[in-house]
């Protein structure tokens, strides 16, 4: 029996029978969004296949292999994609765990085998949680094994302590010596970073470091370690552990290990966000000759007014890559006369902020007043986040009205509305077609859905 509360559940036959017995007001059901249907149905089918395989599980997995291959064959037939037959599982039922280059000299002389390559104790295809419990591997021991098999590494930590770095510095040295690329972002926040640790990282080959010296506005608390593999089995750790000895060994820290095989969109967002930090002027290149500046910054941090961060008066400026998009938008309008423009950028790179910056620039032509704005998207939480972004960029805590769910606007002039409400209320029937000066449709890949 279905319990009351929130769902995001594909309606199957069993659930449909229950829903038929409920009054209309007690249920909220919508068509699966065409733009999200692949992800939604894949997740649902995964659950069904998992249950089915569990029911025929045994010491002999031939029945499971047979079922999997029937599914692969059916998908290949239904989609008319013969290349999908290459995904048929071999009858031996094996898993590949490692490969060595056939030219590896140590393998050729019999001193190295693929099965001996170090690998993390936790899976590289299933996400997991580290809580610092006694029975779990310590963070630093897992990171050492991740480093040994990574092709490139990104680290985002608010501070770097020598006590933590020394646990893995030899591993990083071997990684860099064999051609691995290491990028590190850190800060001078609270004066916690050790100059010795940053200098040790700087001396590694194939290593780049960027530091935020701005302790007035930058509050980077993120702790993330990303291990990219050309094999496609990328992993990442995100949580509470800075690069310090207690955080890496004995502390009760919580860290989630993510993998591309079960959390690909999250890994992609982490990569995009790291790159956005890396390419902003807020994080400056640390190289030979920067040591004295770092020492000064670390010795003077923590003396600022502690209440200053609570004031909503700072200016938010676009990153260089965002400014490039804004300049191209301006050129499209002023040079080519095109006023319907599509912005495409990776998840986490700030498309909503780009639209807010664009609108802020548009406002300058209205002598200080704010032109009428319509912002359309398909989910309430995205609307709230978007309005917050506009308020921050415009430095106006009262800007914009929500028209979604239980929110009813007092004015239509600066409206953040869901596409469902826009369609059901038919604003376009009673407002002039030129009522809005600036219209933004966010998450526009959903436009393939009939509701748009």
UniProtKB/TrEMBL annotation:
Phospholipase D-like domain location: 145-278
Matches recorded under InterPro entries: ATP-dep_Helicase, Helicase/UvrB_N, P-loop_NTPase, PLD-like_dom
Domain Helicase/UvrB N-terminal stretches: 316-451
Protein origin, superkingdom: Bacteria
Pfam families noted in UniProt: PLDc_2 (PF13091), ResIII (PF04851)
Name under which the protein is recorded: NgoFVII family restriction endonuclease
Species of provenance: Butyricicoccus faecihominis
Source lineage: Bacteria, Bacillati, Bacillota, Clostridia, Eubacteriales
């Amino acid at each position: 029996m279905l319990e009351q509360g929130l769902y995001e559940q594909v309606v199957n036959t069993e659930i449909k029978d229950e829903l038929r017995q409920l009054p209309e007001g007690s249920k909220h059901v919508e068509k699966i969004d065409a733009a999200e249907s692949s992800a939604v149905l894949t997740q649902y089918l995964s659950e069904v296949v998992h249950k089915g395989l569990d029911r025929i599980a045994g010491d002999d997995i031939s029945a499971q292999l047979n079922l999997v291959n029937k599914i692969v064959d059916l998908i290949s037939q239904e989609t008319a994609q013969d290349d999908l037959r290459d995904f048929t599982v071999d009858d031996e039922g094996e898993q590949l765990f490692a490969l060595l280059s056939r030219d590896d000299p140590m393998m050729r002389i019999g001193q190295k085998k693929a099965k001996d390559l170090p690998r993390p104790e936790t899976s590289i295809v299933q996400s997991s949680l580290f809580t610092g419990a006694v029975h779990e591997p310590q963070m630093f021991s897992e990171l050492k094994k991740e480093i040994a098999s990574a092709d490139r590494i990104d680290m985002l930590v608010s501070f770097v302590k020598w006590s933590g770095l020394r646990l893995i510095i030899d591993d990083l040295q071997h990684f860099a010596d064999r051609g691995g690329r290491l990028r590190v972002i850190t800060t001078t926040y609270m004066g916690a970073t050790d100059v010795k640790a940053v200098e040790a990282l700087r001396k590694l080959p194939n290593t780049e470091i960027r530091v935020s010296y701005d302790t007035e506005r930058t509050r980077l608390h993120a702790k993330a370690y990303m291990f990219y593999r050309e094999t496609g089995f990328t992993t990442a750790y995100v949580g509470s552990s800075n690069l310090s000895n207690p955080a890496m060994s004995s502390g009760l820290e919580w860290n989630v290990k993510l993998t591309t095989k079960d959390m690909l969109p999250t890994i992609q967002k982490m990569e995009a966000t790291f790159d956005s930090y890396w390419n902003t002027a807020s994080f400056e290149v640390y190289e030979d000759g920067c040591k004295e500046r770092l020492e000064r910054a670390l010795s003077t941090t923590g003396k600022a007014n502690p209440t200053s961060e609570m004031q909503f008066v700072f200016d938010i400026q676009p990153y260089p890559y965002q400014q490039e998009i804004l300049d191209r938008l301006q050129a499209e309008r002023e040079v080519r006369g095109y006023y319907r423009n599509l912005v495409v950028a990776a998840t986490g790179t700030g498309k909503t902020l780009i639209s807010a910056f664009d609108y802020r620039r548009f406002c300058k032509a209205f002598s200080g007043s704010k032109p009428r704005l319509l912002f359309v998207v398909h989910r309430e939480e995205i609307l709230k986040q978007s309005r917050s972004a506009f308020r921050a960029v415009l430095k106006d805590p009262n800007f914009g009205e929500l028209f979604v769910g239980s929110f009813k606007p007092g004015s239509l002039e600066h409206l953040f509305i869901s596409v469902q409400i826009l369609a059901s209320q038919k604003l376009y029937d009673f407002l002039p077609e030129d009522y809005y000066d600036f219209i933004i449709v966010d998450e526009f890949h959903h436009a393939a859905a009939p509701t748009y």
